[in-house]
Amino acid sequence: MGESGKDAISPLDQHIGVTTYMKLTKIYTDTRSDKLIFCCDVETRSDSEGFTITFEISPILDLSLGTADPFVLPCLLMAMERREDLDIAVPVSARLFHSVRTLLVPVLGKMLSLDQNIRVRASKTTSEGYSNNLGVIAGFSGGIDSYAMLRDHYFEAPVPEYKLTHLLFNDVGSHNVRVKGQTEKGQEIYSNHLARIQCIANQLQLPLIRVRSNIDPLLRGGWRLGFGRTHTIRHVSIALLMQSICRQFYYASGFSYVDLNFCDVDDISRGDPVLLQLCSTESMDCLSVGGQYTRVEKTQIVADMPLAHQTLDVCWGQLSDKINCGRCSKCKRTILTLEILGKLQFFEKVFDLEAYYKERSAFIAQVLSSERTLLVEIRDLARSRGYRFPTRAHIQSYLSDLPFKKAIPASVKQAMKRLLTGNRDL
Question: Thinking of the domain 135-289, which architecture would CATH place it in?
Fold first, then answer.
């Protein structure tokens, strides 16, 4: 991959009263045992020692690091959160730099309430792409979105050139979020999750690329940059490491197109169809897939995939004897949807249904009263299929909406709770 040698600095980019900046100064590669490590040294006036971003890739692949593309996006988030200008002193893809300068800064600023007034400069840009990067890669977690993506772009891919050739499994913070930053326990969840995903990849006969990075603790320093608000940028940054072997990256969408939102979001997925395209380069096209479906429609797709019956992994909770704890919000959403679809019996081995049934009535009450998109979808599904929720759940939903509920004595609340939870089949 060559460099155009273009000077991307214009007179308008000179510092005007700016006292802090962040600067990408050096990119390099290190190889240790079975890992390929890509690194970028970063200077910043707000941190006298600076820091290094690392991506550890295994197994070792024939990858080349011709640009700073994978490091630009996490640094952009940090620079916007810290209100620092961003200097890129190593080559960067012209397409990505153009998107950052003209589109990504204002879009991310609006979505995450970050400073849009920072300046971004680059010493050199390149428009030359890789010529033999024929692979197609996608992140895979084993969840509903991932399996729906697998159906469309692997099992039923209409064009061979766009069929998946590689799967990607990243450790960029989601496992630590599940246990509220307890690193040791988070790594246990990661190891268990990885073992399951590797088994799935083996069954599919697709290579699984594993990447671990230190960007989670770096981004965790800013309250606006939590995992839910930045996961798209974290994952697409890793995809850009694969530009020398893959020309297409699929990222499974979390929301349908009708739920797009670009103003102060709690989940960056709401902007994925736009954000992914803005992160594309001359060598790799990044695409959000699955937004044409609702989560209920995706669940219906996955319910008819035999591979998912034994391996579906949607859990956001902690460790459990089953793959899925049955208690967390993602488990309960999925189980109730499968129940309404009449498909739950196929997934009995992967969910802790005993734990679910203890909370089923209260969760249905939440579904009945909530205006959250994913819960409204479940309510609409039940209505369309003539599915009747338990009477107890309706009562709980009604009681939860009473304006004077805070005035009800605790003893009365406890008695009502015992009455409503005594028999789940009421």
Answer: 3-Layer(aba) Sandwich (3.40)
